[in-house]
Write a structure and sequence with these properties.
- By secondary structure, the protein is mainly alpha-helical.
- Helices cover 57% and strands 0% of the residues.
């Protein structure tokens, strides 16, 4: 999955319109990324469509940080960490933060999307890349997460 695929999957899972998506890009006070309506439309296009624009890591980080700021608020005392290269592990970590998912909620979301993982398999995704038990997040895990997230948003449970 490339950054554009993640943007489309997130938009579908959260069922948000263009205006809400544009707002996410500007929500975090440390973000310097400015996206216009036409730029956003180009990001939603598929690679083989005319006008397609590849989404940069800085744009996806701005979107995910905006999602975190919208859902959880902004921690003014600490700027967001600098990420040299955005990996699927970092993306999953930011999504976990944004939705305030604990281990069981992550496992349930992944299971709803068709990916059964153990607690130790899940924790391997959130370790440092140099750790011996680190495991990179694959495309199937990302797709399962977004499918599970979409199911959770369309069929919320009542507690």
């Amino acid at each position: 999955m490339n950054n554009n695929d993640i943007l489309r999957a997130l938009r579908h899972a959260l069922d948000i319109n263009n205006a809400a998506c544009l707002k996410l890009f500007s929500q975090h006070p440390h973000s310097t990324v400015v996206i216009g309506s036409k730029q956003l439309q180009a990001l939603f296009l598929k690679e083989d469509e005319e006008g397609f624009t590849a989404m940069g890591d800085d744009q996806l980080i701005a979107l995910l940080d905006g999602l975190i700021a919208t859902n959880r608020g902004v921690r003014e005392d600490t700027p967001p960490p600098k990420i040299e290269r955005l990996t699927r592990n970092e993306i999953l970590k930011k999504l976990r933060i944004a939705f305030e998912f604990k281990e069981q909620e992550m496992l349930a979301t992944l299971a709803a999307g068709g990916s059964k993982l153990s607690k130790s398999e899940l924790s391997a995704f959130f370790r440092k890349a140099t750790h011996k038990h680190y495991r990179p997040v694959g495309n199937q895990i990302m797709r399962a997460f977004f499918r599970g997230l979409a199911k959770a948003k369309t069929n919320p449970t009542t507690d």
